[in-house]
Amino acid sequence: MLVEDIMKRDVITVAPTDSIRLALLKVHQYRIRHIPVVEDGKLVGIISDRDVRDACPSIISAPHDDDDQIMNTAVSTIMRKDVITAHPLDFVEEAALALYDNRIGSLPVVTDRDELMGILTETDILYTLVELMGVHYPSSHIEVEVDDQIGILADVSNIFKEASCSVTSVLVFPGKHLGKKNLVFRVQTINPRHVTDKIEEAGYHVVWPRKLEELS
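^ Inosine-5'-monophosphate dehydrogenase, sequence as received from the core. Prediction below:
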């Protein structure tokens, strides 16, 4: 899946010469946390809701003579110019890694010429992850611990085929034990016991769902 498949294309922006007052208004009106700063269609910076609030006069202290001057200051004075971006043709997982590594909440999506095409937020990534994993449909979670060997995933997947159980998503991640990995299947059945019994009969350890005696 590519960034262009899930990015928001209707992006709220400001110009470098727009005032902090206008940026604050847009933050409140559209309930957004990041506003790309665009000039002639090209990305030149970004401001966050925190940047805007930090720049605004305090609502606690008494009004000052220069409050209006501050609110009318151009956003170019507070925007960050070293913007981390994504390309429309980047893979979603690469964009997610950029958000994670840089601890940021959004990525403006730009072309090779820095033309703003959209924006991708951590909420978009989370929504997509939920959709890809199929957890928004009635389904069950099956987790199996297996040896970290080539072909194991195919072998276990074949058990689902033999049990006529539809799999909506599969995740693979390192197991808790040396030389092991965990396979997580999301399956379209509310009661997966008939599948987990077959998995155990094949000699694999089912981590989830646990048996009643393991929960007591």
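The chain has two domains: 3-130, 136-209.
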